[in-house]
Design brief:
This protein has about 220 residues and is an alpha+beta fold. The chain folds into 2 domains: about 80 residues, Glutaredoxin; about 130 residues, Glutathione S-transferase Yfyf (Class Pi), Chain A, domain 2. The protein contains 10 helices and 4 strands. Strands 2-1-3-4 form a 4-stranded mixed beta sheet. A hairpin with a 2-residue loop joins strand 3 and strand 4. Helix 1 packs parallel to helix 3 and helix 4 packs antiparallel against helix 5. The radius of gyration is 18 Å and the shape is globular. The N and C termini lie far apart (about 50 Å).
Length: about 220
């Protein structure tokens, strides 16, 4: 599919859109990128690109596909030689499972806390439980990292890393060089955190901690 014309529509501040940017960088694809201001979306975007008005959206030869997990799996299908999903059906299912697990058991706590539904202490407690279980899932795949599957980088890492970084952006506000105990005490989990967040494709597409902190403060009036 090297001859395909690809255009990615994304917003730099959006973790879902960052998933698509990371996948495309990992694929080595030649693609165009159009940045969308989510606070002032151009009219043409919903008319010509994505009627839902969300990012990311990936245009492939004039056909647009949206939703981040759909987009990154499409990238994998367009560039199968990059092996962003394992060929083994069980491993593939486990990679998909950990993405859902992270979203439902760890990431969801961020906005519950920012929105006042979880206290800081309860946020930490719920997150510690989620990270402890994540460590078990990592060990089920491989005793060593640095990625979910071990040495193989995959869509599991692509999908989780934007949200992992933003969790740490939030906890940077806790002071005292806060660190989750589950990460501090479990080498496999610590390897995973370092591995996915030091990956060049992640670093090149991340808007930075301050961008997410600004969202927390401006959208949720977040303060400790």
């Amino acid at each position: 599919m090297a001859s395909s014309k690809l255009t990615l529509y994304r917003a730099e501040i959006c973790p879902y859109a960052q998933r698509a940017a990371i996948a495309l960088k990992e694929s080595g694809a030649d693609y165009n990128e159009v940045l969308i201001d989510l606070q002032n979306k151009p009219d043409w975007y919903t008319v010509k690109v994505n009627p839902e008005g969300k990012v990311p959206a990936l245009d492939v030869n004039g056909t647009t596909v949206a939703e981040s997990l759909v987009v990154i799996e499409l990238v994998n299908d367009l560039f199968p030689e990059k092996n962003l999903l394992p060929k083994d059906p069980i491993k593939k299912a486990q990679a998909r499972f950990v993405i859902e697990f992270f979203n439902n058991k760890i990431w969801t706590n961020v906005f519950k806390h920012a929105g006042g539904q979880l206290s800081k202490d309860d946020f930490i407690k719920e997150s510690e439980a989620g990270f402890t279980r994540l460590n078990e899932l990592l060990l089920e795949q491989s005793k060593t990292g640095p990625y979910f599957l071990g040495e193989q980088y995959s869509l599991a890492d692509v999908a989780v890393s934007p949200f992992l970084a933003r969790i740490f952006a939030l906890t940077s506000l806790f002071g005292g060089e806060f660190q989750f105990k589950a990460i501090k005490d479990n080498e496999r989990l610590a390897q995973f955190v370092h591995g996915v967040l030091s990956r060049p494709s992640f670093r090149e597409s991340y808007a930075g901690d301050e961008a997410f902190i600004d969202i927390l403060k401006n959208k949720f009036n977040y303060h400790l």
